[in-house]
Specification:
- This protein is 36% helix and 17% strand.
- It has two domains: 6-81, no CATH class; 93-218, Rossmann fold.
- The protein is of the alpha/beta class.
- The protein is globular.
């Protein structure tokens, strides 16, 4: 394995002090050599870090000395290197998905919150195709200050939720869907055009960004 040039890696260990949560590593855009260098620097500094978009094959290719110290979740493709923050208090954030196909993105949000010590309530497969499922869970969902709503297709779930509950709704359009769904473009445009005021929208499949928005709102 070739050494990585020092200029390729410049970690932001001061970020948590500035904004309330630390840097994360977007893994799928980095070479294996770069990931090894990042983990080596985090280890040398005696820190912990969250890795996102880390495929199972890329995780398996990492040196054993790093693998054995990582909490890896293949559904969300996330990993905790080192210790996550302790979970404290009652959940103020709920993560709600429209369909089972949206769970990987929803789990990215959940894992991001968990890494930073934020308790979270998970509610899956309550999309508008079977509205009774959402209605059954509304009393539980509405008690949270922030609801991250993850949905593909036409992404109606965030708009429906925002019209029924007082919580801040963070919409995460996903790339799930056929044909004109366009890899999430239709879902993104749908939530951006929502007629319910105050819906926050993040990029397609960006569960990590939604979790960060929720943490900023709580701070």
């Amino acid at each position: 394995m070739n050494p990585v040039e020092a200029a390729e890696v410049n970690l932001d260990f001061d970020r948590a002090r500035r904004i309330g949560f630390g840097e994360a590593v977007l893994s799928d855009a980095k070479s294996l050599e770069q990931l090894v260098d990042v983990l080596g620097r985090v280890d040398a500094a005696d820190r912990s870090i969250l890795l996102t978009r880390l495929s199972a094959s890329r995780f398996s290719a990492l040196p054993e000395r790093f693998q054995c110290r990582m909490d890896y979740d293949s559904v969300s493709r996330t990993a905790f290197f080192g210790s996550a923050a302790d979970i404290a208090g009652d959940p103020e954030i709920a993560v709600v998905s429209g369909g089972t196909s949206d769970v990987s993105v929803a789990r990215e949000a959940v894992r991001t919150l968990t890494f930073h010590g934020r308790p979270v309530t998970e509610v899956y497969d309550v999309g508008v195709a079977g509205l009774w499922r959402l209605q059954e869970r509304l009393p539980d969902i509405s008690r949270h200050r922030i609801v991250i709503a993850v949905a593909g297709m036409e992404a109606a779930l965030p708009t429906v939720l925002a019209g029924l509950i007082p919580s801040l709704v963070v919409a995460v359009p996903t790339s799930v869907g056929y044909g004109v769904s366009g890899g999430g473009e239709t879902a993104l445009r749908s939530v951006l055009a929502s007629c319910v005021p105050g819906v926050v929208v993040v990029n397609i499949d960006n569960g990590y960004g939604a979790a960060c928005a929720a943490m900023r709102a709580l701070s």
